[in-house]
Write a structure and sequence with these properties.
Strand content: 15-25%
Largest sheet: 8 strands, mixed
Number of helices: 12
Order of helices and strands: HEHHEHEHEEHEHEEEHHHEEEHEEEH
Strand order of the largest sheet: 2-9-8-7-6-3-4-5
Radius of gyration: 21 Å
CATH superfamily of the largest domain: Type I PLP-dependent aspartate aminotransferase-like (Major domain)
Number of strands: 15
Length: about 400
C-alpha cells in the first residue's frame, strides 16, 4: 500500500447502506444483458406513480418568479405555516419549532448531530431504515438496536426496548409506518413507548414519512399527539406521500415540554443556520401539497393495495417463505426459513434471475433469522414474474 495514500476518516469505516450498496452488483449483472426486475428502491417515480399536478405547477411557478435564491434557514413562512396546520391535523400540540430540510434524511441527521455525543447511543428499530445506523456510525455513537416482533405484526418489542436502555441512551427512534416491514404501530404500543421515554428522559424521533400510505382503512396515530409533554421530533416530507423524492423536501416538528427542549432547539438551529437553507423553489410546493387536493393518495392506494395483496399471497405460497402483511408504506419483509445467509440468497437471486431485492441483514433482524425486503411499487405483471423467479430460485438455493 502506498504510504502516502490519503487515509479516510475513521468515522466512515462502519457506514453501510444496503439499499444502494446492492445496486453495485445489480449494475454488474445488468451489463451482461440479463433482464432486470428492480424491487429494491422505494422511488415511486420509477414506476407508474406521479406527483399531483398542482404541486409541480406551483413549484414551477416559484422558479419562474425567481424564487431561486437562499431561503430562511428554517424554511419559508408559507411552508412552515402549512406544516403547522398539518401537525395540528395529526393532533400534535405544544409545538416549539418547525424547520424545513433537504428531505427528512437531513432533518434526522441534524437532530441526531445536535443530540448525541461520542459513545452515547440511540435506540433504533430492528429491522429499520439503515440511515439511522449510518448516521450514528458517522457520529461515532454506539449502535443500540431494539427488535420488532415478527410474531406480533412487527410491533416494537417493549421488553426488549426496556432492556436496552442505559445511562448513555439519549433517544428512541420510531419508524411508523415502518420501513422495511410496512408495520403500523398500535396506540397501546405508542403510549407505552411514551411512558418509557418520559421515565428515562429520552427524546422520541418519530419518522412518519409514510403516514398517508395506509391499507385496509387503517388510521395512523402520531405519537406526539398522545402526550403534549414528551420531547418529540416528528419527521415528515413530500417524497413518499406526494411522490417527489427528487425534490428533497422534508421537515421536523419539535413538540413537548419546552423547559426540557430550549437548549436542544437552539443546537438544532445552529446547524440549520450553518448549512444555509433547504431547496428554495420546492418549498413553495409544501403549502400546495399539504393543504390542496389529496385525491392522488386514494388513486395510488388502490394500485398499491392490489400489489400488496399479490405480494403477500404469492410470497406466502412459496414453501419456506412467510410474509407478514404490510399495513402501510410499500415494502414487505418476508422471512426465509433457512439456515443459510440472506445475503447469499440475494446475491444468487440477482446473478441468476435479475430480480433485485435487498438482504434483511441490511436493515437488521433478530439473530438467527433471515429476511429480504421487496418494494412492491412495480405493476402486477412485473411483480408476478419476479415472485415466480424468487420461488424457483429459493427451491434451488435450499437444495444447493
Amino acid at each position: 500500500m502506498n504510504s502516502r495514500a490519503i487515509k479516510p476518516a475513521v468515522r466512515t469505516e462502519n457506514i453501510t447502506y444496503a439499499v444502494r450498496d446492492i445496486v453495485v452488483l445489480a449494475n454488474q449483472v445488468a451489463k451482461t444483458g440479463k433482464e432486470m426486475l428492480y424491487l429494491n428502491i422505494g422511488d415511486p417515480n420509477l414506476y407508474d406513480f406521479a406527483p399531483p399536478k398542482h404541486l409541480v405547477e406551483d413549484t414551477y411557478k416559484a422558479m419562474l418568479s425567481n424564487k431561486n435564491g437562499y431561503a430562511p434557514s428554517s424554511g419559508i413562512k408559507t411552508a412552515i405555516d402549512a406544516i403547522e396546520k398539518e401537525a395540528e391535523r395529526k393532533g400534535i400540540s405544544n409545538i416549539h419549532d418547525i424547520f424545513v430540510t433537504h428531505g427528512a434524511s437531513e432533518a434526522i441527521e441534524v437532530c441526531l448531530t445536535a443530540l448525541v455525543n461520542d459513545d452515547e447511543n440511540v435506540l433504533t428499530p430492528t429491522p429499520g431504515y439503515p440511515l439511522y445506523t449510518a448516521i450514528s456510525s458517522k457520529l461515532r455513537a454506539i449502535e443500540n438496536p431494539y427488535y420488532l416482533d415478527e410474531s406480533n405484526g412487527w410491533q416494537p418489542n417493549l421488553d426488549d426496548i426496556r432492556s436496552k436502555i442505559n445511562s448513555k441512551t439519549r433517544a428512541i427512534v420510531l419508524i411508523n409506518p415502518n420501513n422495511p416491514t410496512g408495520s403500523l404501530y398500535t396506540e397501546d404500543i405508542l403510549r407505552e413507548i411514551i411512558k418509557i421515554a418520559k421515565e428515562n428522559n429520552l427524546v422520541i424521533f418519530a419518522d412518519e414519512i409514510y403516514d398517508k400510505l395506509l391499507y385496509d382503512g387503517k388510521h395512523h396515530v402520531s405519537i406526539a399527539s398522545l402526550d403534549k409533554d414528551v420531547p418529540c421530533i416528528t419527521f415528515g416530507g413530500l417524497s413518499k406521500n406526494y411522490f417527489v423524492p427528487g425534490f428533497r423536501i422534508g421537515w421536523g416538528i419539535i413538540s413537548g415540554d419546552k423547559t426540557l427542549l430550549t437548549d436542544y432547539i437552539e443546537a438544532i438551529n445552529k446547524i440549520l443556520r450553518a448549512r444555509l437553507s433547504a431547496n428554495h423553489p420546492e418549498q413553495h410546493g409544501i403549502h400546495t401539497a399539504l393543504l390542496g387536493d389529496q385525491s392522488h393518495i386514494a388513486e395510488a392506494m388502490a394500485k398499491l393495495t392490489r400489489r400488496r395483496d399479490l405480494t403477500v399471497t404469492m410470497l406466502n405460497s412459496i414453501k419456506g417463505i412467510s410474509c407478514v402483511a404490510p399495513e402501510g408504506a410499500f415494502y414487505a419483509f418476508p422471512r426465509l426459513h433457512t439456515d443459510k445467509s440472506d445475503a447469499d440468497f440475494v446475491t444468487g437471486l440477482i446473478r441468476e434471475t435479475g430480480v433485485v431485492v435487498v438482504p434483511g441483514s441490511g436493515f437488521g433482524q433478530v439473530p438467527g433469522t433471515q429476511h429480504f425486503r421487496v418494494v412492491f411499487l412495480p405493476n402486477e405483471q412485473i411483480l408476478e414474474k419476479a415472485y415466480k423467479s424468487i420461488a424457483a430460485y429459493f427451491e434451488k438455493f435450499q437444495n444447493s
